[in-house]
């Protein structure tokens, strides 16, 4: 079973290997935004980011008239992606294909040498068992569909030269493949992240979105009890609280709610408490706190807190390897 071999190779005592984080989700779900803050916080000298949409089999022109969209596994070199993920997870370099999203062309491949931490983001990083076996931490970004569609409209019209009608037609064409291949990856995530407004609240324009994080017991999460105690008694005006949810399979799972509408000083208390836990695992490395929570032209504390939690997991996985 090839996925077992990856686990065996990665577990054997062969020195340090990169910590691998997957961030999966549909187009414009916020993967690049989440990734960019982490890379800038840890530093590009310590972290490598790879987008697996670079494994598209056809360029934009070639895809016209094909019976599938860019979301379909047949429209991607999934087997080569798997090979490359295995190599990266063992610290080996790859010659990665490159898809230029601005022009829709496949361009010159690039040499990627993994640093201590590797983030792999894209449409299908958790599609196969072998790909999943390469990761230490897996995340699925799950914004409500209307929000994702508005992000895709803005981004594709603003940066990729599409008209609103073209974007809507493409979203409609992709929907069956989103349902068949993208959304099923949610099942394999250790953490499912949903940025969204809180239902029933009317907040002033510009209020950052809140975040709900399902913390599945597939990895060891930090003990948040101390952080929550510092945040104060659970309530609408505190920055964060935990609740018990039923997961898709009916099992109970912790849900962490991070409120975007609270006063900045409330978020600061939570950020400081998590930073202290992150700091215990940092070693000598420097971290740039200002890089967290940035999107487009705005800033968001729920985004910063989500990134901080992922930072904790990355450093914790590295710390355990060193121990
Ligand atoms: N937490 C957030 N709060 C506000 N806006 C956000 C957030 N996350 C993402 N966005 C916005 O959504 C848009 C799409 O985000 P992003 O480019 O990160 O998505 P993506 O999943 O990487 O897309 P693709 O895979 O299609 O390239 C961007 O304009 C970004 O500013
Ligand atoms: O879902 C996507 C990730 O951004 C892209 O839309 C896909 O990678 C290719 O699409 P396009 O034809 O617009 O370049």
UniProtKB/TrEMBL annotation:
Superkingdom in the source lineage: Bacteria
A Pfam match: PRK
Domain Phosphoribulokinase/uridine kinase per the UniProt entry, residue ranges: 21-197
UniProt signal peptide: none
SUPFAM superfamilies with a match to the protein in the record: P-loop containing nucleoside triphosphate hydrolases
Pathway: Carbohydrate biosynthesis; Calvin cycle
Record field: catalytic activity: D-ribulose 5-phosphate + ATP = D-ribulose 1,5-bisphosphate + ADP + H(+)
GO biological process: reductive pentose-phosphate cycle
EC number: 2.7.1.19
Family annotation (InterPro entries): P-loop_NTPase (IPR027417), PRK (IPR006082), PRK/URK (IPR006083)
Molecular-function GO term, any one: phosphoribulokinase activity
Keywords of the record: ATP-binding, Calvin cycle, Kinase, Nucleotide-binding, Photosynthesis, Transferase
Alphabetized PANTHER family for the sequence: URIDINE KINASE (PTHR10285)
Similarity-based family: Belongs to the phosphoribulokinase family.
UniProt protein name: phosphoribulokinase
Lineage: Bacteria, Bacillati, Actinomycetota, Actinomycetes, Streptosporangiales
């Amino acid at each position: 079973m090839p996925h077992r071999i990856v686990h065996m190779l990665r577990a054997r005592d062969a020195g340090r290997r990169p910590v691998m984080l997957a961030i999966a989700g549909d187009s414009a779900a916020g993967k690049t935004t989440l990734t960019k803050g982490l890379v800038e916080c840890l530093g590009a000298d310590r972290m490598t980011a790879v987008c697996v949409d670079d494994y598209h089999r056809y360029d934009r022109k070639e895809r016209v008239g094909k019976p599938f969209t860019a979301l379909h596994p047949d429209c991607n070199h999934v087997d080569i992606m798997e090979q490359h993920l295995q190599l990266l997870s063992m610290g080996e370099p790859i010659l990665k294909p490159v898809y230029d999203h601005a022009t829709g062309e496949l361009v010159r491949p690039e040499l990627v040498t993994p640093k201590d931490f590797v983030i792999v983001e894209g449409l299908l990083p958790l599609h196969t068992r072998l790909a999943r076996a390469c990761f230490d931490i897996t995340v699925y970004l799950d914004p409500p569909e209307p929000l994702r569609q508005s992000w895709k409209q803005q981004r594709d019209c603003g940066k990729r030269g599409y008209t609103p009608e073209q974007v809507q037609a493409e979203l409609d064409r992709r929907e069956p493949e989103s349902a068949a291949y993208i959304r099923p990856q949610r099942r394999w995530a250790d953490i499912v992240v949903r940025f969204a407004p809180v239902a029933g609240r009317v907040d002033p324009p510009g209020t950052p979105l809140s975040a709900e994080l399902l913390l599945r017991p597939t990895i060891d999460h930090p003990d948040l009890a101390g952080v929550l105690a510092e945040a104060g008694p659970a309530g609408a005006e505190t920055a964060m609280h935990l609740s018990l949810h039923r997961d898709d399979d009916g099992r109970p799972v912790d849900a962490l709610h991070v409120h975007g509408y609270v006063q900045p000083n409330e978020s600061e208390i939570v950020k400081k408490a998590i930073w202290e836990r992150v700091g215990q695992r940092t070693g000598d490395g420097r971290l740039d706190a200002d890089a967290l929570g940035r999107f487009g032209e705005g800033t968001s504390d729920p985004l910063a807190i989500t990134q901080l939690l992922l930072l904790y997991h990355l450093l914790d996985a590295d710390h355990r390897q060193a121990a």
